[in-house]
Amino acid sequence: MYVLSSKISFKEKNIVPFSLGLNAIIGVILFVIFILPRSEASNQLIFGLSAPRALIALLFLSFLLVNIGAMIVLMFEFGAWQEKLKKKVARFFSKHNLGIIIILYASLMITGAFLLLSVPPIIRPLSFLEPFSARLSSIIGWLFFSSALFIILLRSITPEEEHKSQVIGRLDQTLILFGIFITTFFLYSHFAALIGWVGKTKYSFFDLLAGQFIQGKLYLENPPYTHDLTLYKGKWYVPMPPLPAILLMPLAYLIGATNISTSYLSMIASALNGVFMFLILKEFNARKWINLSKGATFILVILFLFGTPHLYLGISGRGWYFSQILTLLFLALAAYAALRKKSAWLVGALIALAIIARPTGLMASPFYFAIAMQIKKEEGKDVNFKVVLQWIAKTLPPIGLAIIGLLIYNYLRFENFLDFGYVTVNAGPVVVHNVQTWGTFSAHFTPINLQVMLFKLPFWNPDGRWLIEPSATGMSVFLTTPALIYLFRRYSKDWWIIGSWAAVFLTVGLLSLYHNTGAHQFGYRYILDFLTPLMALLALGFKKKTPWHFQLLVIASIAINLYGTHWFMNG
Questions:
Q1: Across the chain, what does the average pLDDT equal?
Q2: CB of 372 within 8 A of CB of 338?
Q3: How many angstroms separate the CA atoms of 254 and 417, rounded?
Q4: Is 175 a domain residue?
Q5: 181 domain-assigned
Q6: 376 and 430 belong to one structural domain
Q7: Closest CA to 507 of 362, 372, 329, 402
Q8: Which one of 201, 473, 550, 552 counts the least CB within 10 Å of its CB?
Q9: 13: pLDDT confidence band, cut at 50, 70 and 90?
Q10: Is residue 414 part of a domain?
Q11: How far is 430 from 519, CA to CA, in rounded Å?
Q12: Running DSSP on this structure, what letter comes out for residue 425?
């Protein structure tokens, strides 16, 4: 239980009126900023303010007067009634302190989100905030400042052991996770606006397909674009697995398929990826499999979100990329579930969902299996053949159902269980020639895939718009994310480390056989299929803090991916 200390030192007593005074000063400044602009002459009610603004000003002023009154009561002596009032207030806070601290944290998150999301340009789905932002930004800004200030105040006047209580720990973590989510979404959406990637829904595919699913149809009727669609018996099909469309069906039913923005939904899923990457690294830390400070953990999450192809894939919203973002989300959820010792069936179900977005997700299975075995070993349990078989057997039903479901989906579309529609897809001639000549997967493609993945460089283009012209077929993962060179180190033979590398090499092995390198892209976008275990392995190379030279490479990775995203969207 979070309890306020009944013994507060003289210095701490002075902190309270000082905090109230500081809060009042900020409040007065914001109040003046709010009332100075005059409303339109036809709408003015009093003091040049419209009725809604006058009401908000009255509410604002009431809060300010309460704040100032509390400060005066604490600073000066007025008599016996003052002591009685102080005791009543102290009893109230002591009795309801947990509720008060929860309200303050909730207020901080809500007001912070409002202020962040109402920063111009306000994104289209949140355009309804614009009139509220003009009227409420001052009072909400003050409430945000007040919430932050009083959380700090309460934390400063309570005993150290109370800071470590379970409730406060959960509130702190909720605040951090919410901060990661809302900040990532804000930065992704505003960077998209900055480079002009707004309202570009071409090649989204899954919004239209969701609308068709609701009508019981597996094809697109009169699609506005047919690139990367497959024509079969006069009907156009989306060749990619259907999970994104399935997830979009409720939204398509409520607001209509044409009103869905897969770009913004992709940004939301990307922000969730950042949240779960933080949680995964936190769980690795808690199990002492890695040894990172909170600051170092944030650096790796920032690298993951802004220093890899996750950035442009997350912003785009186009069908191919949205599938990859969702695949990574469910694979990250599977990793978190395994680390939290959830049932093998649940881990298998999350892998299955990833497979319904991108079948390559199956190759990451050793990562989750190894996590589960490592935990069992550390708990003193015997990791024998029976235990291994039992865990795998529990994951197989949902994974098997996902694979069978995809095969049936293929048959319903193309009357062939194994045909995903890529052989006759309406794509670039080189891609179509490759798959028709050598098949979807072939050792013929291994040299070019590995060359692009590991060694491909950009072009020097002094006469063009882009001085450094990235290769549209892809580029080396170590060039687009130079921080990954820290993967080259010695590793122990722990279960989870072996499982991580097994997941990486199995996925890379499968992708090296694939008939295209990722087509038009920046960097090597398929890295997202194995980015979760890769980030865990990268984290293993540091002891508490990350060195300055790694931080420089993180900055370089972010700069490269910002440039590459701008090039990809506008090049």
A1: 90
A2: yes
A3: 33
A4: no
A5: no
A6: yes
A7: 362
A8: 552
A9: low
A10: yes
A11: 10
A12: B
- Residue 22: other Cβ atoms inside 10 A: 14
Pair (211, 158) in one structural domain: no
Contact (Cβ atoms closer than 8 angstroms) between residue 552 and residue 485: no
Does 214 fall in a domain? Answer: yes
Dist. CA 258–CA 248, nearest whole Å:
12
ω before 121 within 30° of 0 (cis)? yes
* pLDDT, tens digit (0-9, with 9 covering 90-100), for 369-427: 999 999 999 999 988 999 999 999 999 999 999 999 999 999 999 999 999 999 899 98
Q: What is residue 441's three-state secondary structure?
A: strand
CA angle 440, 316, 110 (to 5 degrees): 135
Helix (H) or strand (E) segment spanning residue 232: strand 230-232
Whether 247 and 351 share a structural domain: yes
Q: pLDDT tens-digit profile of 92-108?
A: 777 777 788 899 999 99
pLDDT at 292 over 50: yes
Tell me whether residue 179 is exposed, middle or buried, using C-beta atoms within 10 angstroms of its C-beta: 0 to 12, 13 to 18, 19 or more.
Answer: middle
Q: Which structural domain, as residue segments, surrounds residue 238?
A: 206-570
The three-state secondary structure class of 237 is: strand
The dihedral through the CA atoms of 439, 440, 441, 443 has a sign that is positive
- For the segment 327-376, what is each residue's pLDDT rounded down to a tens digit? 999 999 999 999 999 999 999 999 999 999 999 999 999 999 999 999 99
Question: Six-digit token pair at 339?
Answer: 């680390």
Q: What is the pTM of this model?
A: 0.92
**Do both 326 and 470 map to the same domain?**
yes
Q: Would you call 514 helix, strand, or coil by DSSP?
A: strand
Do 281 and 140 lie in a common domain?
A: no
Q: Domain tally for the chain?
A: 2
Torsion angles phi and psi, residue 292, rounded to 5: -120, 145
> What are the angstrom distances between the C-alpha of 323 and each of 346, 418, 435?
21, 20, 21
